[in-house]
Design goal:
This protein is α+β, with helices and mostly antiparallel strands and 211 residues long. It has two domains: 96 residues, Alpha-Beta Plaits (2-Layer Sandwich), CATH 3.30.70.580; 94 residues, 2-Layer Sandwich (Alpha-Beta Plaits). The chain is 19% helix and 26% strand. The chain contains five helices and eleven strands; from the N terminus they run E-E-E-H-E-H-E-E-E-H-E-H-E-E-E-H. Strands 1, 2, 3, 4, 7, 8, 9, 10 and 11 form a nine-stranded mixed beta sheet that branches. Strands 5-6 form a two-stranded antiparallel ribbon. A hairpin with a 2-residue loop joins strand 5 and strand 6. The two termini are 16 Å apart. The model has no long low-confidence stretch (mean pLDDT 93).
Length: 211
């Protein structure tokens, strides 16, 4: 008897959606069930409701654990629209680590993004609120940890409040290109490709696990 492949999906989570399949009583946020009509899959990691971008959904609990275990430190890359003009000293501070609630963040990667990167991004619904008198900038920030609202707290700590936050990719740390949002509009999802599935299987083999 042939064993069915484990189902794993890539989703472009829209703004205003919780990273779970049930609504919270009294919450104004939607949930994944509004967008993904697939049973028995759950998010490997999370994005806040007011953040957008890549979520990996899988029915394999071991894979969820492997992708979120801080010991493995998968790089996650975010594009971040901030309020204000970015200075080199602020990028350096983000990269070296800032103190959040008495604890320094781990070293990160932070670069300025010019308009060639973000000008074709889909508009957020609802659109962000900007102040006409204050310019905005875009950054690429990559982290190997996922503390609560970490990027928003980090940018605020260096004087650059976050206006919009999009997770662009998750690196499987296998010397292959990261899993990314490429080809997915907000709310769209797709099953992982066969080659991507094999790469996810390889992650679990490093733990002596089977997918």
């Amino acid at each position: 008897m042939l064993r069915r492949s484990v189902l794993t999906l890539l989703l472009h989570k829209p703004f205003g959606v919780l990273s779970q399949f049930t609504r919270e009583p009294g919450s104004r946020w939607g949930c994944l069930a509004d967008w993904v009509d697939v049973p028995n899959v759950y998010a490997a990691g999370r994005l806040d409701a007011d953040s957008e971008g890549l979520l990996i959904l899988t029915e394999n609990g071991r894979l969820q654990q492997r992708l979120t275990d801080p010991r493995f430190g998968h790089w996650r890359t975010y594009w971040v629209q901030v309020e204000g003009l970015v200075e080199d000293s602020q990028l350096t501070a983000l990269e070296q680590g800032v103190v959040i609630k008495g604890q320094s963040t781990r070293p990160a990667q932070a670069t300025f993004l010019d308009a060639s990167h973000w000008r074709d991004l889909p508009e957020r619904t609802p659109p962000i609120r900007v102040r006409r008198s204050i310019p905005t900038s875009w950054l690429s920030i990559s982290l190997r940890e996922g503390r609560n609202r970490q990027i928003r707290r980090m940018t605020a700590a260096v004087g650059l409040p976050t206006l919009r936050l999009i997770r662009r990719s998750i690196d499987l740390m296998d010397s292959e290109p990261p899993l990314s949002l490429e080809g997915l509009a907000p709310g769209q999802w797709r099953p992982v490709k066969p080659a991507e599935q094999e790469r996810l299987k390889a992650l679990l083999r490093t733990q002596g696990a089977r997918l």
